[in-house]
Amino acid sequence: MKRYLNLYLHFLRFSFSKAMEFRLDFTFRIVMDILYYAVNIMFFKVIFLHTPLVAGWTQEQMMIFVSCYLLVDAIGMTVFSSNMWWLPHHINKGELDYHLIRPVSPLFFLSLKEFSANSFMNLIIASGIMTYALSTYSQTFSIWEVVLLIALILNGTLIYYCCQMLMILPVFWTQSSKGFMDLFFSMGIAMERPDKIYKGWLRVVFTILLPFALIASFPARLFIEKFHWPTFLHLMSVTIGLWMVMLFVWKKGLRVYSSASS
Amino acid sequence: MKWWRHVVAMELRKILAYRSDFWITFLGQTLIQLLVARALWQMIFDAQGVTEMQGFTLEMMSLYYLIVPIGTRILTGESVGFLAREIYEGTFTRYLLYPLSVFQYKTTTYLTYSMFYAFQLLIIYTLFRIFIAQAAFTFTDFGNLLMGIGLFFLAATTYVMMALLIEMISLWADNVWSLIVMLRFFTSFFGGGLIPLTFLPSWTQAALEWTPFPYLISLPARTIMGLSTLGEMGKGVLILSVWIIVFVEFVKLVWKRGQHKYTSVGI
Amino acid sequence: MIQVKHLRKTFTSHVKEPGLKGSFKSLFSREVRTKDALKSVNLEINPGEIIGLIGANGAGKTTLIKILSGIVHPSSGEATVMGYVPWERSNEYRRQMALIMGQKNQVWWDLPALDSFLLLKEIYQIPQAQYKYNIEFLAETLMIKDQLKTQVRKLSLGERMKVELMAALLHNPKVIFLDEPTIGLDISAQKAVRVFLRQYQTEFKPITILTSHYMEDIKELCPRVVIIKEGQFVYDGSLSNIQSMMGDEKVLSVTTQDKTFKVSIPRHELSSKTHQIFEENDVLDLNIQDPSIEDVIESIMRNGVRPT
Q1: Which residue of chain A comes nearest to C124, CA vs CA?
Q2: Could you say which of A98, B8, B106, C181 is the most buried, measured as most Cβ atoms within 10 Å of its Cβ?
């Protein structure tokens, strides 16, 4: 465990020293992310021009939810995005070889080695939005509820990562993951809406099979509405299940890789 | 000059080479976007107890969100950042060697993708019209569809020029894909890709009137739905054409300088 | 100790007709083709031994190396390396093994080599003292001390290979797989790599399997060679024996007005064949030699082993 932590520190060091090289890019990215955040906030602001409640939430409650998914997105962007971008290329071109011969989990290595120091500002901005949303919230809440919220957002990031991996891993079989990746990004919209809007079979899909609604909406709901054990247990069991499915598919995929590579 | 026909055939072949991608992007994306949007608006309509908002019934709203994601893809054509990527990888030099204009070449590949998506739109539209929601089609017929697709192509041409203008910055800066993503966000929001433009406050709508944005997504989509008048369409065509000319001139200017910069550095 | 028994590997690949029509077709169905990369091979390598694996492109060299390093699963058969089954990829095995591929990089492109080494130290959990000693020793023997702080992408091809070698050997592997370590290098860099490998072999005595297209590499480093042809071993024995295998033959190099060619001829037919050549051609020059190792290997790769 400590060894993996040490390795991660190396990754961080590498990425920061690399990031210093592209400074203009750095600025562009910050502007891009601010624009992305602005668009998301404006979307709900515009809707609230026409209705006082969306899925049972007021505007200030909605802002807390929006800040939740923006934070998940920011963490995902910083920690996983570059890795997820390169992973299908590596698999496709047969470049996993060196990762397979090392005495370190290849999944760890391939998922985390590229830390996007460039996107680091995202984390700060997204945290700022969340702080703002919480500080202007008219209801009272305790510090522990905030701690739980943040823990659940981290859990949401894990779900986000697993979902993305499940969309990438078919590349072991299909040789191209462009379709699935595009699908993942368009499914991202499902995490950006309150889970209450999903009813019937659509609810089953987005809360169990492809649990995008669990990424930010469940954490926000547990914070805004009263803490609710069944919701919490649902969240936890789906997370564990998803993680196990992802590991299973990864192992199967490696097996395919190693019987097809030449 | 027949080279462009080969380019089109080559790009189509690339698109078709990956069969799972073909079906996944086609059905999956469209369906998910539609389902999520519909779920949201249904909730809003129900909570308000109304059957119409800003000129949209729930059925029309569904149709709008069916057209818009594919329309956006017609608009944005090929994936972002190709020029920037080629400059970074150093394969860009080949366009300096080919005896044809890099812009004609790139515009052709772009619009090939647009064609492909227009074809998808046609299929989805037909399926939807026959099997799912006839009610949404009260104002529209096949002629509207063709006019709308035509407008989407004009919009795509405008968009390509904007994208090229930005991509050329990569002759100076290392990495500009973030700028292109910004263009996407901007177009999506102010073009009506996220929410119909009639929902925006009226001062915003007024401010956008002479920019290309409302005519990139909203106008063609509304045309397909049979919601735009001939006057609106004519105005859109006129404004987009003026913008295309402006952008083309800019692209030429920047390219001249950028090319000089690129070749003189000698990468 | 490496033991390989009846190892087989079959690949399947999809076939697509060219053109747009083919693309449409492959949307719905695809044809599958299978190819045998290894057909039941057996091999035994003793501790400290270094062997050369020779074969044409696509003969199965790389497949064998990838199986033994655990990257590729075989279709059937057994293999153990120091008691480990490679494709189980246990950490203990991976800690004692190194793979160097001349055509693939493992050091980080954008970073100085020393940074990559630090990361590898962490990955392989190399103790500080051993790490320091190895850096010193390897950099010294490879004569690359001054380049370790430069970004790897700015190094020359030869320097890059040296850095790759260092990176792979930092953890003192007991088994080393070298897949064309000298490919693309100029003569002097090839030589430096060879000298280093020999020195390393005498110092640490790992089991080494080396593949190369350059006979020089094999001749200088490997007392024992295995020749592989279309997935089968056609020769496994000492390098010096190879020549005697064809001891019965002589090679004639003939130069005429318009061409130069070589023929190998059994010794007892030497005079009659030479006579014939003189009659049929306008010979300017003729030379009778024993076959060189290159000739023999080429002939084995083409025709298999002929009984003597």
Answers
A1: A103
A2: C181
Closest listed residue to residue C127, CA positions, set C93, C163, C172, C82: C172
Is 50 exceeded by the pLDDT of residue B43?
Answer: yes
Residues of chain A with pLDDT > 90, as a percent, come to 61
Domain co-membership, C83 together with C8: yes
- Domain shared by C89 and C214, yes or no: yes
* Interval B232-254: pLDDT, tens: 999 999 999 999 999 999 988 88
Over 90: is that where the pLDDT of C79 sits? Answer: yes
Q: 3-class DSSP state for residue C127?
A: coil
Q: How far is C59 from chain B (nearest CA, A)?
A: 29
Nearest CB to C20; choose among B13, B19, B22? B13
Count B/C contacts: CB-CB distance under 8 Å.
18
- With beta carbons under 8 A apart, name residues in chain B contacting C16: 17
What is the band of B23 on the pLDDT scale with cuts at 50, 70, 90?
low
> How does DSSP assign B175-233, residue by residue?
--HHHHHHHHHHHHHHTTSSS-GGGS-HHHHHHHTTSSGGGTTHHHHHHHTT-S-HHHH
| CB-CB contact of B157 with B246 (8 Å) | no
Domain assignment of residue C22, yes or no: no
B89 in A contact zone (CB under 8 Å): no
For residues C242 and C252, membership in a common domain is answered with: no
Amino acid (1-letter code) at residue A221: R
Q: Worst-scoring range by mean pLDDT, A228-232, B152-156, C236-240?
A: C236-240
Whether chain C has a CB inside 8 Å of the CB on B10: the answer is: no
Residues C78 and C1 in one domain: yes
Q: How far is B1 from chain A (nearest CA, A)?
A: 33
Q: What is the pTM of this model?
A: 0.83
Domain boundaries, position C272: 248-303
Q: Which of A125-139, A144-158, C236-250 has the lowest mean pLDDT?
A: C236-250
Residue C279 domain-assigned (yes or no): yes
Give the domain CATH number at C212. Answer: 3.40.50.300
